[in-house]
Amino acid sequence: MKIAVDAMGGDYAPDEIVKGVELARDAYPDLEFLLYGQADKVQPLLQDTTRITLKPAEEVIAMGDEPVRAVRRKKHSSIVLAATAVKEGEADAFFSAGNTGAVLTAGLLIVGRIKGIDRPGLTTTLPVLRKPDQSSFVMLDVGANADTKPFNVVQYAIMGQYYAQSVMHVAHPRIGLLNNGTEADKGDKAHRAIHDTLAGMDDIHFVGNVESRELLNGAADVVVTDGFTGNATLKAIEGTALSMLKLIKGEIMSGGLGGKLGASMLRPVFHRVRDAMDYSQYGGAVLLGLKAPVVKTHGSTKAETVKNTMGQIHELLATDSSRQMINYFTDHAEQMAALKETLK
Amino acid sequence: MKIAVDAMGGDYAPDEIVKGVELARDAYPDLEFLLYGQADKVQPLLQDTTRITLKPAEEVIAMGDEPVRAVRRKKHSSIVLAATAVKEGEADAFFSAGNTGAVLTAGLLIVGRIKGIDRPGLTTTLPVLRKPDQSSFVMLDVGANADTKPFNVVQYAIMGQYYAQSVMHVAHPRIGLLNNGTEADKGDKAHRAIHDTLAGMDDIHFVGNVESRELLNGAADVVVTDGFTGNATLKAIEGTALSMLKLIKGEIMSGGLGGKLGASMLRPVFHRVRDAMDYSQYGGAVLLGLKAPVVKTHGSTKAETVKNTMGQIHELLATDSSRQMINYFTDHAEQMAALKETLK
């Protein structure tokens, strides 16, 4: 199993990317890596080239570059060359911590969509807090598309199911539709149509509407939503978690308790809280619906997250997740075409 | 200034509602109350009838009643009679902690929309954490409409501005559009159109797109959004805040620090955190865009929240907020009609 890696993307590239790839190489004996980047920068960082091949890519797509234009013009960039390696079958998956828009664009334009899937969905794993039998859930689309049709959301349920089976090892993941109430008739016309379609599908375990209030409590294993609402919900969760952590820290410190306890005693508590909320432990965001895994981590990615993400890609490849999706959408081509007509 | 109160709505009605009205009466010498409820239940609770008139209402709309049907059929319910008092000019505002859907329906059908406003927006005040010069912001629509048009969101900016001026005492509130990025061209076609329209309006202080990640940091004083996204965002903030509080409490207690500190020392810290996040201190949710203030608090409302909410209504009445909105939409009738054509 071979992963094409953009060594130049992210705030700490190429150092931390290369370090992370070496950690992953040591952890997963069946993984090989094609490392795309500027040879003079990447070569000196490589300690041991076992199962790692350096692939020179002299251009770099910067964080601020306009995505579509950059992917079209910078043919020798690490992002374009790594994605092309997947397209041409030289690699099985594509990893980057670089320019999000460019990674998604390269995924769409170069790796390509699975036949029958109109809109790939960006998929994130988030923590479930204090529930004994569930530690995480996945949500899609969290922002690949600002303009989503009901048909796309129905497809997200199928895609999310395969993903949760591969990565979370849940045989029959509970699929929920993000809505403004749990009753079946909640939401606008589009959400009622999505709800009824999902409720009528035999091959998924649909648990109905879920509210964003209950996500961290584990209301579902897979939460499907349009990219606009998913993006707002994800960012509201992130922002509130950060703000609460700061607020509680500040209250303990300013309340005189900090002095009594000593910062050294509180530090491990806050580290554990941060770890519980840190979803980079689950790997990166995956653009589901492409012919091969395309995985993007945060710009601030360091070696440990690179390693975790390679573990996540390892699961996707070992379970042949993309092949399963391709087969599903081939086998259900007629059903999907009919759905697309009804759910415009 | 006279407020029509639904004494029967809420989990602790009528006891806590009556108690709260008496507190508010003592706190605001220029407020009078019409208290709608079942006489045999409300009468015995009233300690002092100064500026409080009991208005018998023998029917009750229950929490589980279907809103539109209940408002149409239960003509002698406290909700319908209180809203009717506002419509007929006997009272200046309507308060309830009862069935949300029924309160919104009574507001729309009985109190009535301001001429020129298509869709009233449910407006909530939320805390801003750890920012010296801003303690709260308001957001609308948080769920009155599941199906919002760009034109409605533009009107929310005007309505939110008047509200923030009256209740938050900010002369030129910063108005932000909730979007999936801060750049002007973010979002779908609808959001780009809303952005450009707001940016071109002289009579508001528009600060551009805001992301849900930055709301609790005080990115704006007034955040406008469609009712579906607003609802998902509000509930994500609520749910995450609750989950984080539980998580951190649990980590401190299980980490052995709880024992060392003693629960009695930590309790005030968590109380302060809960108070900071408790938006019932700012009063209830207001259905803005009606001819008079219609204010709804949570079902779990107790006397203190009733009192705070009467303070909020007091501000709205003292600044003649509804009249200002009515005047604005009368004066700008042509401009609004033109906007409605462009922003379908």
UniProtKB/TrEMBL annotation, chains A, B:
Subcellular location(s): the record lists: Cytoplasm
Q: Which GO terms describe its biological process?
A: fatty acid biosynthetic process; phospholipid biosynthetic process
Question: Where is this protein chiefly located?
Answer: cytoplasm
Q: Quick one: which pathway?
A: Lipid metabolism; phospholipid metabolism
An example Gene Ontology CC term for this record: cytoplasm
Q: InterPro entries recorded for this chain?
A: FA_synthesis (IPR003664), Phospholipid_synth_PlsX-like (IPR012281)
Q: Does the keyword Ion transport apply?
A: no
Which major enzyme category is it? transferase
Q: Which UniProt keywords apply?
A: Acyltransferase, Cytoplasm, Lipid biosynthesis, Lipid metabolism, Phospholipid biosynthesis, Phospholipid metabolism, Transferase
The identity of this protein, by name, is Phosphate acyltransferase
Organism field = Levilactobacillus namurensis DSM 19117
Q: Give one GO molecular function term.
A: phosphate:acyl-[acyl carrier protein] acyltransferase activity
What PANTHER family does the record point to? FATTY ACID/PHOSPHOLIPID SYNTHESIS PROTEIN PLSX, PHOSPHATE ACYLTRANSFERASE
Look up the EC number in the record and give it.
2.3.1.274
Catalytic activity field: a fatty acyl-[ACP] + phosphate = an acyl phosphate + holo-[ACP]
